[in-house]
Amino acid sequence: MNLYNIAIHSLKRKKSKTAFLIIGLVLAVSSVVTLITVSEIVNRSVATNLDEFGANIVISPKSDELSLNYGGLTVGGVSISNNQLKNEDILSIKKIKNKDNISIIAPKLLNTTNIEGKKSLVAGINVNEELKLKKWWKVIGKKSISKSEALVGLKIKEKLNIRLDQIIKINSREFTVVGIIEETGSQDDSMIFINLDEAQSVFNQEEKLSLIEVAALCYDCPIEEIVTQTSNQLPLADVTAIRQTIESKMTAIHSFEHFSFGLSMVILIISMLIVFTNVNASVSERTAEIGVFKAIGFTRNNITTIIIFEVFLSSLIAGVIGYVIGIYASRVIAPILSMNSSLNVEINIYTLIIATFLSLIIGVLSSLYPVYRANKLDPTVAFRSL
Amino acid sequence: MSFIEINNLTKEYRASKESVLAINDVSAAINKNEFVAVMGPSGSGKSTFLTTVGGLSKPSNGTVKIDDINIFGLNVDTLANYRREYIGFIFQSFHLLKYLTVQENVLLPLVSSDLKKKEKIEKCHAILSKVGLETKAKRMVDELSGGEQQRVAIARALVNDPLILLADEPTGNLDSRTGESIMNLFKDLNAEGKCVIVVTHDNKIERYAQRSIYFLDGKIVN
Ligand SMILES: Nc1ncnc2c1ncn2[C@@H]1O[C@H](COP(=O)(O)OP(=O)(O)O)[C@@H](O)[C@H]1O
Ligand SMILES: [Mg+2]
Questions:
Q1: Which one of A18, A40, B82, B203 counts the least CB within 10 Å of its CB?
Q2: Which atom of ligand 1 is nearest to the CA of B168?
Q3: Where on the phi/psi map is residue A231: left (φ > 0), alpha (ψ -120 to 50), or beta?
Q4: Greatest CA separation found in chain A?
Q5: pLDDT surpasses 70 at A92
Q6: What is the mean pLDDT of chain A?
Q7: pLDDT tens digits, one per residue of A104-135
């Protein structure tokens, strides 16, 4: 007979109360585990999709002129003579330590030229990569262009009065306009797109590039690291992270995280109230019993040990059960909410320990006041009540 | 100097509005081998007197000295240890733990003792046979009759071999024949050297005691 035996016998005796306490905690732990697991998975999937939505790193030749600014459309100042990027630089990017985080590399060669007497901006692009990067492009006609085909932005189409299937001359070579990009609100509206190889040969700039746009998956790797690694690979280039894009993406991701964190907190507080009510009621019901403990000379420590151990055992059981239920619930819910269906949620000891620990903390914390009350209890009042 | 010395003991219960003087400036002295009956009508302060003497509830005023130790001068945990070693309480409604067996109930006060498990069990069996329950050690307590339950409670009070037994209406829930056998048990225990104080409002009980203290409205009268 020791204090732990007393607690275990007492728990067994009041089966329905114990069950209620455990169920309350199981619900809390499993909801929190589900929320956090699912939000982690959904985040990852959202982050991956967002990261591929437009570039977050731009690589341009090092230049003393500040006017070389693609994003802000000061492209008029692009000095081709300064062009130091080459096709082979793409291979260098693919060699950085975090190469697995690089998802899209979209190289570009920009040139201004006269088309039908009007100054126009022509971009040589890697069509596949560009289309992956600019998922928002809506094209009337054909999206992908082959040799001697061109895509045109809406503004330049109107300025030059081009129609679909029309042939335009770029540096006296002929290109068929196979697609018109609907208005994007960006500089793309004023550009003509042709294949990179074609552009390099039309403008006599074999192997050369004006800039490279990169989409990096930066969910679990800071973008700064990728920027640094790329800079080291390309010492002659300026590698810049596009802050604005990154921050707005992170805000989107974090707002989801904040939501599940907030919801978890609410659930935890509710479960603390459940435990508190349960243990407090149990102390009230057991005033006579606690009085007996005092009468036979149990110290405050003894009494605390009995009550806390009861809660401890219940929380321990609830933590394990809640975790397992949470993981199974996540397995059902995560594929529905995330865009990636090949995710698997594994039971792992580390998170199991965290969940159990969480359950124990809820249980023990919310029992502190009832325990204090039990120790303060005047035993004579306890005996009078019966 | 007596074994138990009670000086100017006052206990006031404060409810929200009114306060009750349950015992009012009471002094008494009780010797080591005495068997004292505490008598008086309901509400006169007998139970309060007993729990205060037993160190279970703090008086508003006055002192209780046992073996020359001012028990309310001890800190809470020392007082708990003191109760465990010196005092055995017995209540009208037994107050056994229903989720434990007879033996487990009797072993409760030994929970933090240094005795080996075997020694504890031996001790428990010796005491159970003293109260005539040696065959019922493994029973759950609510399978027993009222008289048997009170014997378990007495065994629990005795297991630490205390010098003082404090019983509050121990026969109140029992029929008169069972009550008599319980009182005889107290008489035997007193003969073995225990100081026994029994609270009762039953005049038939009085004859077991060597001496009676009468309470009326929180005061001792003669
Ligand atoms: N915990 C308490 N709170 C308030 N009043 C109490 C309490 N315990 C006892 N009393 C009051 O103190 C007086 C003495 O009670 P008690 O010691 O139980 O008397 P007895 O045991 O002689 O019946 C009664 O008036 C009772 O109502
Ligand atoms: Mg009474």
A1: B203
A2: 21
A3: alpha
A4: 108
A5: yes
A6: 86
A7: 999 999 998 888 888 889 999 999 999 988 88
Closest chain A C-alpha to B206 CA, distance in angstroms: 23
Look at domain B4-220 and name its CATH class: alpha beta
Both tokens assigned to B166: 């404090």
Q: What is the pLDDT of residue A48?
A: 75
φ, ψ of residue A157 in degrees (nearest 5): -60, -45
In terms of CA atoms, which chain B residue is nearest residue A15?
Answer: B99
User: Over the stretch A63-85, which tens digit does the pLDDT of each residue have?
Assistant: 655 554 555 444 444 444 455 78
The model carries a pTM of 0.77
The lowest-confidence range among A269-273, A335-339, B206-210 is A335-339
Where are the domains positioned within chain A?
3-48+251-383, 56-241
Q: How far apart are CA B201 and CA B212, in angstroms?
A: 11
Residue type at position A326: G
CA distances from A66 to A62, A73, A137 (A): 10, 12, 29
Residue B98 distance to chain A (closest CA, Å): 9
> What is this model's ipTM?
0.94
Locate the domains of chain B by residue range: 4-220
Angle at B55 between CA B53 and CA B59, to 5 degrees: 75
**Tokens 């599940």, residue located:** A260
Find out whether B148 and B96 touch, Cβ atoms under 8 Å: no
Contact B45, B221 (CB under 8 A): no
Q: What is the pLDDT of residue A180?
A: 93
The rounded distance, in Å, linking the Cα atoms of A213 and A270 is 49
Collapsing DSSP to helix, strand or coil, A231 comes out as helix
- The string of DSSP letters for A267-302 reads HHHHHHHHHHHHHHHHHHHTHHHHHHHHHTT--HHH
Percent of chain A with pLDDT over 70: 90
Q: What is the distance, to the nearest Å, from the Cα of residue B5 to the centroid of all Cα atoms in its chain?
A: 17
* Cβ <8 Å between B111 and A383: no
Length of chain B: 222
* DSSP code of residue A99: G
* Phi, psi for residue A48 in degrees, rounded to 5: -60, -45
User: In sequence order, what are the residues at sequence separation of 6 or more whose Cβ sits closer than 8 angstroms to the Cβ of residue A117?
Assistant: none
CA-based radius of gyration for chain B: 17
The whole-angstrom separation of Cα A178 and Cα A234 is 35
Residues A225 and A231: their CA atoms lie apart, in Å, by 10
What contacts A41, CB < 8 A, 6 or more positions away? A330, A334, A337, A338, A343, A345
Q: Cα-atom radius of gyration of chain A, to the nearest Å?
A: 33
Q: What is the pLDDT of residue B201?
A: 81
Which residue has the least CA distance to atom 26 on ligand 1? B43
The residue of chain A nearest to residue B84, with distances taken between CA atoms, is A297
